[in-house]
Specification:
The structure holds two protein chains of two kinds. Chain A is of the alpha+beta class. Chain A contains eight helices and 19 strands. In chain A, the strands form four sheets. A six-stranded mixed β-sheet of chain A has the order 6-7-8-3-9-10, with helices on both faces. In chain A, strands 13-12-11-14-19 form a five-stranded antiparallel β-sheet. In chain A, α2 crosses α3, α2 packs parallel to α4 and α3 crosses α4. The longest helix of chain A has 18 residues. Chain B has a single domain, classed as MetI-like (MetI-like fold), CATH 1.10.3720.10. Helices cover 75% and strands 1% of the residues of chain B. Classes of the chains: A alpha+beta, B mainly alpha.
Amino acid sequence: MNKPPLITLDSVTKRYGAVVAVDTVSLEIDAGAFFALLGPSGCGKTTLMRLIAGFETPDEGRILIDGEDMAGVPPHLRPVNMMFQSYALFPHMDVASNIAFGLVQARMPKPKIKARVADLLDLVQLKGFEARKPDQLSGGQRQRVALARALARNPRLVLLDEPLAALDKKLREETQFELMRVQRELGTAFLVVTHDQDEAMVMAQRIAVMRSGRIEQIGTPLMIYEEPATRFVAGFIGDANQLEGTVVETGQGLCSVELAKGARVTARGASVNGAKVVVMVRPEHMQLGGAGLPGLVLDCAYRGDMQMIRVELLGGGIVRVASFGVQAQAMLQRGSQVMVSFAPQFARVLPS
Amino acid sequence: MSQTRPISERLIFWLPFAWLVLFFLVPFLIVVKISLSQAALSQPPYEPVLTMVDGWDGLLSKLAGLSLTSYDLLIEDGLYLAAYASSLRLAALATCLTLLIGYPLAYAIARAPVGWRASLLLLAVAPFWTSFLIRVYAWIAILKDEGLLNWALMTVGIISEPLQIMASDTAVLIGITYAYLPFMVLPLYSSIERQPVALREAAADLGASPWSIFWRITVPLSRAGIVAGCLLVFIPAIGEFVIPDLLGGSQTLMIGKSLWVEFFDNRDWPMASSVAVVLLILLVLPMALYERAQMAQVRS
């Protein structure tokens, strides 16, 4: 537990003119971790990664790699390698030369380079493609060459900028597991930057959710999904029903919240009486029936493994209820009156 | 199928082709024909003149009068070959110089902030706004014994005697290098400018210093621009006439000048034509070989 983290960001700030791209961000990434920076486009996640790679210099704060301050260290001298969103494969070099580029720079002897390139091609399952030029490869193959090239120098950390964005949907899913396998086999730390919450949830052990230059929450996928710290995180990761109200009673980690039009619900979380809050409930934690909030069915989408039912609450607002298993279709006609209920332990009180 | 293509589409294909036949191939064949004729004191100054006035038999007997005399002379008289060699040498040197000066220039423009690039590029081609002749005359004022360059060097004290640059191959070299620099800079600029920034960043990320990024990424990727720029300078420089005439001396041998002398001073059209034909073959042959090598590379 006393081992220092591999990467430490200490109150890092980066400004472009009046725009604060990264705003006093602090985070730690452990050796061997699979870490994801997740956020909408323009949230500063790519800038943060470029700061670690050394393509940008922070205006304030420090970046430590293995405890060493990286201030003034140019990209080519940092023990991190990056896989670019565009892959940035060198078009005039074949696959083998692309992968060997960093090794040649490191003045590794030729026979060793050859062996290393062969190993890497094996790892990314591209044996026999040595002599191909990048424009003779498919998108998925290019992605794997870029990965092998980034891994070639045995970096302490690999930065992956939207690694799956350029792939089609089916390939994306396969590649997710592929990246996880490679990461597991090598034990190299991966930092993935993505705007896709599914990607981050599937691959990463820890996720930092970013919004306008700041980190909203850092945690495991489970924590971030089940215990979102803010409204933004709740809405960005997965579906979330958000009911606005005022706290009227607190105690034992629970709050009683009065919604508009007087209905009361109980939810987990700490707050103070009179605070304006949001009660967040995932659709799969809401049921139809029981004692709860009355509403009218708006529509009902059948998705095979489940139904997504939208209900307009009489107290105002629309909620989504995920219903698994077979339900009586007739009951869910548009306009039918239903009760929406949820257990307090699945509802969270978040600051409004 | 060509039958099913609309006429307009076929026109688009044939028009440039017809243009080349009419304004390049036909004149070239005329020049070839003149090069096979003999000089004569007549109008036009060569014979035979191919006409149909004597019918088919007359035309055939005139064709029999064509010969390779001019080409024999061209090979026997060492002066022409020396002029070709000297032109090739000067053009090659000028190409190297424009590349050496043009690459850093193009690189600097291509890496300048986006808003600046257009203006900087405009400055690089600004000399085209004045007449070519005036610019070459300006070099006389700079290079002559009592010219600007000697004055400056002597004032600073680097030399005590004026350098004799005018009327020498050096002056021709300087003139050609200056005049053709924009033709080198433009293709180089466009081939450097369109290289994605991410490629350089990826190279830096993989441990390449700025110096090795330049040699391993930027230069190889600008190869098309280097080839285009070199061809654009080398080919016209070989046949250059005005610059050697104004800046060169009596001992400056360039094939463009020889051609001029044959045509206008000696009025030996067949000789001048044969000089032109050989020049064209000298230029087209390496280009055709290069094209073939390129095609072979693409196919493999």
